[in-house]
Amino acid sequence: MASCFDYALKYIYRYPKTEKELKIQLYTKWYDTKDINRAIDELKKKNYVNDKMFAESYIRSEIVNKGKPAINIIKKLQHKGVPQDIIKDMLHQYSDDMEEGILAKIKKEIQAYKRKDVEGFDIIQKLMRKWYKLDDIKRVIQNK
């Protein structure tokens, strides 16, 4: 157990992981299921592995601060093993901040495309290919 716990602690040291990611990594290192479960339980007690905190910080970083499309971040969180109810709660909690971040990113993208002499419908198409919603794009264009 000690070596499994030590490895798990070392693995999450640099970058936080979800419970699923940690479990997968520990299985690839051939640790016993019982040791893995004990190590994860201990890490959860110490709040070192917390899917809710992970989802919250990931959403704040990727959507609120960087303005990435929510659909991409939702898919990444699902892939990382964050439960659906936690994702919904975090999206609801940060909905206003997310909207501001996404609209600011769309505005920045539009300005960048205009500097490259891309105009009109081409800009809209390029933004939609990046998974931005048409309503958000229209809102940014109309507010200019």
Describe the structure in brief.
Helices cover 76% and strands 0% of the residues. It is built from nine helices and no strands.
Write out key terms for the chains shown.
about 140 residues, mainly alpha, Arc Repressor Mutant, subunit A, elongated
What is the strand and helix layout of this fold?
Elements: H1 2-13, H2 19-28, H3 33-45, H4 51-65, H5 70-79, H6 84-93, H7 95-115, H8 121-129, H9 134-142
Helix pairs in contact: 1-3, 2-3, 4-6, 4-7, 7-9
Can you offer a commentary on this structure?
The structure is a single chain. The protein has 9 helices and no strands. By secondary structure, the chain is mainly alpha-helical. α1 crosses α3 (33-45), α4 runs parallel beside α7 and α7 (95-115) packs across α9 (134-142). It is elongated.
- Please provide the ordered H/E string of secondary-structure elements: HHHHHHHHH
Would you count the extended β strands for me? 0
Q: pLDDT below 50 for ≥5 consecutive residues: which ranges?
A: none
CATH architecture of the domain at 1-49: Orthogonal Bundle
- Provide the CATH top-level class of the domain at 1-49: Mainly Alpha
The mean pLDDT is 92
